[in-house]
Write a structure and sequence with these properties.
Blueprint (H helix, E strand, L loop, with lengths): L1 H16 L2 H24 L5 H23 L10 H25 L2 H7 L3 H13 L5 H19 L9 H23 L8 H20 L11 H28 L2 H23 L5 H21 L3 H4 L3
């Protein structure tokens, strides 16, 4: 009996101290984020894009601030980092979610989910341009392949049509991906000084402050919204932004960055499937091919980059 109890204890220690919980946390995170596209699509039909972002992050920043004060009560933001933290909050929260919400209001949730798959590739490309990072030929091929896949996912029919709302919405999603890539570059100099939770919390706070005056530009669109919209706003604020970021940070502390990046690729798949199942959205064959090319390219880049720590670090 004692041996049996000891085995149970050892198994529990493995679950708690090993990587099982981290993998589960990552799976829950990508599921929450993957479903966020249909939640945004539903809410933005009643709440304008900037106002939606403000309501979402007022909820999220409050929860994250309380968690940070509980877990890291003694940590303070150094005065020399206020500028970097503020700019990162603008690109990672304010500009990113304005573009994403606007884009999803014009295009489909499924298309937006497909396009977000290019984010890891953009991060590497910007790292090469800004920091002159050297990458292998195979990774260069992967980046070119992902860009071609993104072109198919964005245009749907292979043609640039600036008169199409869907096309403009897709371009907004691409702009959001560039904004997030700049955000990750800005965070490079801060990652060693503060925890992931601290960075996320304060950048969310600064990003939310920027959203307050910008939301006044939409005051003429303000009106009472339905319980359905409120439920989606709460889901975005509590589950996607607060809980999702917290679980993601936990997973990053336990898992290799390549594993977490591969998990993030599932987000696009979940977004496409949920858009089809819950919103009855359709995707043309060119977009499916484009999405497949993006995912294959990302896997190629990650597999090759496993021996290149500097490049892998940006994924």
């Amino acid at each position: 009996m004692q041996i049996y109890l000891e085995k149970i204890k050892n198994n529990m220690d493995f679950l708690l101290n090993g990587k099982v919980l981290a993998n589960l946390a990552m799976l829950v995170t990508v599921s929450l984020w993957g479903m966020s596209f249909i939640s945004i699509k539903t809410a933005v039909s009643e709440v304008p894009p900037i106002t939606l972002a403000l309501l979402r992050f007022m909820i999220a920043s409050t929860i994250l601030f309380l968690i940070t004060k509980k877990k890291e009560p003694a940590v303070r933001l150094q005065r020399c980092d206020w500028g970097k933290m503020t700019i990162a909050g603008f690109f990672g929260i304010t500009l990113y979610f304005y573009l994403e919400n606007t884009g999803i209001s014009l295009t489909t949730a499924s298309s937006a989910a497909l396009i977000t798959a290019i984010l890891p590739i953009l991060s590497i490309a910007l790292d090469v341009l800004v920091f002159k990072t050297r990458i292998p030929l195979s990774q260069s091929i992967g980046i070119i392949g992902a860009m071609f896949g993104a072109y198919l996912a964005i245009t749907a029919n292979g043609q640039l049509d600036f008169s199409s709302q869907t096309f403009i919405g897709n371009l907004c999603i691409v702009g959001a991906m560039f904004s997030w890539s700049l955000y990750t570059l800005l965070n490079k100099s801060l990652n060693g000084k503060y925890s992931g939770l601290f960075l996320t919390t304060y950048q969310t706070l600064f990003g939310t402050l920027f959203l307050i005056p910008l939301s006044l530009l939409e005051y003429h669109q303000w009106h009472l919204f339905s319980w359905n919209a409120l439920g989606n706003i709460l889901y975005l604020g509590v589950c996607c932004s607060a809980l999702g970021y917290f679980l993601y940070i936990y997973a990053l502390s336990k898992l290799d960055v390549i594993i977490t990046t591969l998990y993030l690729n599932l987000m696009s798949i979940i977004g496409v499937l949920s858009g089809h199942l819950f919103l009855a959205e359709t995707i043309v064959s060119a977009q499916i091919v484009g999405g497949a090319v993006i995912l294959i390219s990302i896997i190629m880049v990650n597999c090759t980059g496993s021996t290149n720590k500097k490049v892998t670090k940006t994924l």
